[in-house]
């Protein structure tokens, strides 16, 4: 993973590059006076970047659960370099962009068993590569799910005995569990890891939420952002590098919406959007004021992604778009921002580009069998407890930001009814009030809170732009 800039004194050119998977961020601002770059938007805002709202990004922000695909960001004056891309900028400000890696999503000649064996080899190699490229102790962020558990298992399989693991949990709300300790504890016991477990009450979340948002390079609505922030605070007191499981679901078909997309009818974008996009475009038009009614940019972007060559079938296009474009600006950026806020480096073996290339060559039917992630489950048999392998897919839980009630509802209502929000003029306040009045009637296709999405964007702007 990398993001770097090199000045060529002989040619008076700046060369800028970002790693294949976009694990490390690189933002820039180009004006008539200068090309400025940084690892977050806040630094560019501090040197005078235009902070007006980008209407293209706004529509995507509220449609792709906080994802704004590169090169846009929510701010007109800040862009980000696409993954697997280089920029060459000359002294006159001319920019030449080149993409140096674009994986195909086509079948190889390997059998199913060979695909699984190759997955095992590449994942083990990816884990060990990230363990060995450090001169400090490394731990694992252990959620209790298959992905992080498998990282622990592979480390043990490779001969690592002194494995450190870290887990966090929150309060339950109704039937929504706030932790996955039931499963992480099994991994700790099986591999005798040196484990730290942190429990956070809902009363502790709101006072710390502003800190997490201040460390977001862009507004991120994932409920687990604050969880990673609070977990990283504690972990950073003990070690400086961790392994995390981001990318496994996208590479190996772990999400519940993939089978729904596959069985859906309609155009490719319609099949995708029905089970992924947060709000219909018609609702978006009701949500924001007219100056931001500039077109369905999410649909246009998806059409462009799905039209790229070298994908055998619809689900191959979905997986390639997810692992090369969407994951970058959702879980990967979230974990990078929240860990680096505490000087903790998160490494993501499932995002190893050779493993991703291999995963994209596996047929969707093989990846999606056993309710998803079949290759990873086969690797795990005999290594992990069956109860962890066969459990229902979980999500790093933060129930209070999903089922918005009580003080969390009051908090979000205050943000959206604030003078700053009204004066910003982005939202249609009449529609926003409907969402505030019935938040659980406005859930996304992925079971997220649309109220939280609206509040988080405004809160991010208040903290990072207004203050």
TrEMBL record:
The keyword Zinc-finger does not apply. One of its GO terms (molecular function) is asparagine synthase (glutamine-hydrolyzing) activity. One of its GO terms (cellular component) is cytosol. One of its GO terms (biological process) is asparagine biosynthetic process. Residues 1-92 form the Glutamine amidotransferase type-2 domain. Gene3D superfamilies: Glutamine Phosphoribosylpyrophosphate, subunit 1, domain 1, HUPs. Its EC number is 6.3.5.4. InterPro entries: Asn_synth_AEB, Asn_synthase, ASN_synthetase/amidase, Asparagine_synth, GATase_2_dom, Ntn_hydrolases_N, Rossmann-like_a/b/a_fold. Keywords: ATP-binding, Ligase, Nucleotide-binding. Belongs to the asparagine synthetase family. This is Asparagine synthetase [glutamine-hydrolyzing].
